């Protein structure tokens, strides 16, 4: 325990420490801006074995824990089944849209090949309460990844690749605060701008005349249907001419271990 | 000295594994416990280097480095006005 002396003259020392702190911050920021590759590659090289060890320990712990608690096991099984059911429901919704779209397109685009190439990537680090809302993936330029490529979970778009390094890359979630994406709403195919609100949530401001109901699918305006999410709620007020469409990703980002990357069309 | 090394190890591992807010919270303990706890800058720098994106729309890409710097300076001045600390 340190006691502050009544007549201590620590003013000069404090100022010197503060100045030194400012200098360190400036040096680190300059290093980050002028040598981003060096910083990222060095940190990733250190982080990779730590994250691998963490995964190993978590997996082992889960196995041991499951042996001792039957209730927990059942609860986990229940949670898994609930998750699978939710995934199946969303997959069914996607399949329904696919079916209708396929019928429409067949007559127009017969013989046209989408040529979509998907690359599987392991999520090394998730947003995990970080303010940045980024995913760290274990694929980079060595795997033909480029800036602008889309990150998918099934047919749902999660984010966009923003930085690519030799053996890893960083993707920003489309639901990050302030991210704006062009989307099509439901069956009406009305184009609108979806604004990210963090943690997989989005908001669209559209005129009241646009017919939207809960469960409608929001998708990207591409040839191959890529989905954004399903409408959760529609907020309307009597006085406003606009309505707020609230929707979110049907997949829980924190439960994901793998994603797919599709080349930017 | 041994306590500081132990906290440093926890802190560096924490900045890779734990949520960033938790790593900064542990750093705060270090700031009050030890003189010139410059390790906090390493924590901010690691978090920014791992998760930060240069083209971030809302936040500056070195947000955690700046936060750790502010914490360091704030604690320096706070210590002057505390009767006792760890």
UniProtKB/TrEMBL annotation, chain A:
<comment type="similarity">
    <text>Belongs to the MreC family.</text>
</comment>
<keyword id="KW-0472">Membrane</keyword>
<dbReference type="GO" id="GO:0005886">
    <property type="term" value="C:plasma membrane"/>
</dbReference>
<keyword id="KW-1133">Transmembrane helix</keyword>
<dbReference type="GO" id="GO:0008360">
    <property type="term" value="P:regulation of cell shape"/>
</dbReference>
<feature type="domain" description="Rod shape-determining protein MreC beta-barrel core">
    <location>
        <begin position="123"/>
        <end position="263"/>
    </location>
</feature>
<protein>
    <recommendedName>
        <fullName>Cell shape-determining protein MreC</fullName>
    </recommendedName>
</protein>
<feature type="transmembrane region" description="Helical">
    <location>
        <begin position="18"/>
        <end position="35"/>
    </location>
</feature>
<dbReference type="InterPro" id="IPR007221">
    <property type="entry name" value="MreC"/>
</dbReference>
<dbReference type="InterPro" id="IPR055342">
    <property type="entry name" value="MreC_beta-barrel_core"/>
</dbReference>
<keyword id="KW-0812">Transmembrane</keyword>
<dbReference type="InterPro" id="IPR042175">
    <property type="entry name" value="Cell/Rod_MreC_2"/>
</dbReference>
<keyword id="KW-0133">Cell shape</keyword>
<dbReference type="InterPro" id="IPR042177">
    <property type="entry name" value="Cell/Rod_1"/>
</dbReference>
<dbReference type="Pfam" id="PF04085">
    <property type="entry name" value="MreC"/>
</dbReference>
């Amino acid at each position: 325990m340190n006691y502050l002396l009544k007549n201590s003259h620590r003013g000069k020392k404090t100022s010197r420490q503060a100045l030194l702190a400012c200098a360190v911050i400036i040096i680190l920021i300059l290093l980050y801006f002028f040598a981003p590759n060096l910083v990222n590659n060095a940190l990733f090289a250190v982080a990779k074995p730590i994250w691998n060890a963490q995964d190993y320990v978590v997996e082992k712990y889960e196995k041991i824990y499951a042996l001792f608690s039957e209730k927990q096991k059942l609860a986990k099984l229940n949670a898994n089944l609930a998750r699978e059911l939710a995934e199946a429901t969303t997959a069914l919704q996607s399949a329904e849209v696919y079916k209708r779209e396929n019928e429409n397109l067949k007559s127009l685009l017969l013989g046209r090949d989408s040529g979509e190439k998907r690359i599987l990537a392991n999520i090394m680090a998730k947003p995990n309460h970080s303010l940045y809302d980024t995913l760290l993936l274990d694929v980079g330029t060595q795997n033909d990844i480029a800036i602008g490529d889309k990150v998918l979970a099934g047919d749902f778009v999660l984010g966009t690749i923003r930085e690519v390094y030799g053996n890893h890359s960083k993707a920003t979630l489309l639901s990050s605060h302030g991210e704006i994406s062009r989307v099509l709403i439901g069956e009406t195919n009305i184009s609108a701008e979806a604004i990210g609100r963090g943690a997989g949530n989005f908001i669209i401001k559209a005129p009241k005349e646009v017919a939207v109901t809960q469960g409608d699918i929001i998708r990207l305006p591409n040839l191959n249907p890529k989905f954004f999410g399903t409408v959760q709620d529609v907020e309307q007020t009597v006085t406003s001419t606009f309505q707020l469409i609230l929707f979110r990703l049907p997949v829980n980002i924190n439960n994901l271990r793998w994603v797919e990357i599709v080349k930017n069309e | 000295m041994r306590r500081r090394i132990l906290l440093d190890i926890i802190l560096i591992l924490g900045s890779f594994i734990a949520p960033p807010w938790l790593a900064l919270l542990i750093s705060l303990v270090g700031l009050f416990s030890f003189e010139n706890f410059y390790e906090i800058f390493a924590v901010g720098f690691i978090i920014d280097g791992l998760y930060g994106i240069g083209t971030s729309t809302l936040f500056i890409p070195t947000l955690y480095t700046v936060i750790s710097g502010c914490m360091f300076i704030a604690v320096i001045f706070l210590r002057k006005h505390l009767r006792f600390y760890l």
